[in-house]
């Protein structure tokens, strides 16, 4: 069969139609998220809250990763001399952050503007009564004069966590004439009331030595947190950035908001 100019054209139109239907299906907000007015922070906060609750398992068709748990990259921490009695090199791998989406209370979401000539600076405030990091660890260090060289399972329990996340999103105009947000940066600051470490396999599970070491470690939580917290924040932010990027990838910014 030979394709004439006209039938070729029909084939193209069919294809275009099919493609744009495919795109339509993935555009817009995934239900149950709703559009808000740009200035309506209460509504924006409610949507962020809904997002955490409704998309625990991510949105696979939009390449939005799981929120429960959130998979974190490897975290490498070298103690920065905040304490003479505690020095270590710690590698955390296979890390997963649990309970964030289920316990998150969103307190604020600001920074959306109509001005698309410069990057948007968004701020998300959130409180979490309880989150946990579950991971594998490999540590080489010393506590007082006691060498600690071990690997095993690590749990970090964090209570009453306040997080301020700053997200930078760059407006990018695509060939369809619409502007989309490209999440280019994420920084998180956190305040944690109480943190607790648990390490399996410490001292080949010599229980007494293990328990007393963990006790001292946890008494030193504030010092430990100076080294650990920023790295955990960075890892969470990286995961969060990719989650947001997936969510916003195919929603034109002009469809984010209800008309004023
Ligand atoms: C946190 O997550 C763990 C692992 O999924 C679960 O066993 C635990 O019950 C959760 N805790 C809270 C407070 O939701
Ligand atoms: C989106 O941002 C990343 C940096 O985070 C950059 O590498 C990429 O080129 C940007 N994409 C577009 C379409 O501007």
TrEMBL record:
Keywords: Biological rhythms, Signal
Domain of life according to the entry: Eukaryota
Extent of the signal sequence: 1-25
Keyword presence, Magnesium: no
A cellular component annotation (GO) from this entry: extracellular space
Record-level GO BP terms: circadian rhythm; positive regulation of circadian sleep/wake cycle, wakefulness
Family indicated by similarity: Belongs to the TO family.
UniProt protein name: Circadian clock-controlled protein
Gene source species: Drosophila erecta
